[in-house]
Request: fold
Amino acid sequence: MTIHNFEGTNSVLNTFISEIRDQKIQKDPMRFRRNIERVGEVLGYELSKSLSYKSKSVTTPLGVKEIQIQDQEVVICSVLRAGLPLHQGLLNYFDHAENAFISAFRKHTNNSPKFEVIVKYFAAPSLENKVLILTDPMLATGKTLENVYKVLKTHGTPRSIHIVSLIGSKSGVENIDTIFPKSANLWIAAIDDILDKNGYIIPGIGDAGDLAFGQKL
Reply:
């Protein structure tokens, strides 16, 4: 898998990530969601450079111009519910993309830090020979993406796979590197070194779903 980590690149993306991490700014859910959406837009733009293009003639009021237009079918698949703002950011740039959604959550037994990832809902078009963009904002252990990938395989073989995340742990990135095809690409804004015993990224941001949409029971 090819890893595109933008943490070491100086750009406006760093501003969005710094605000997403800031516990004071996190208190504004609207701003938190919008910052995630903007990260999706930036990573979507970077991702778009790797796709294939074809020439298209565009007629203006004064003439005709040949422009290179992206020519592959795209499916954006997001993990509910935390992936929704990231999904919207990508959809802002890939506005003709098809959409897929999958629910995945951590199930802890007897308050144990150990957990299994449960997938309960999946809705998607055919993925056969299409560009699959899989979004999960926090790439912690990689177990969620592992289980999601198993389900996605039932809907066809994509032409290419692109994973888009805000922040990952070093071990989580290493884990999915062994699971996804070597041709897959990971587009990520930052990678943190530490994953605690409960499977949370340190320093990370906390629970992305709760921060974006409120605490759950």
Remarks:
- The radius of gyration is 18 Å.
- The first helix runs from residue 13 to 21.
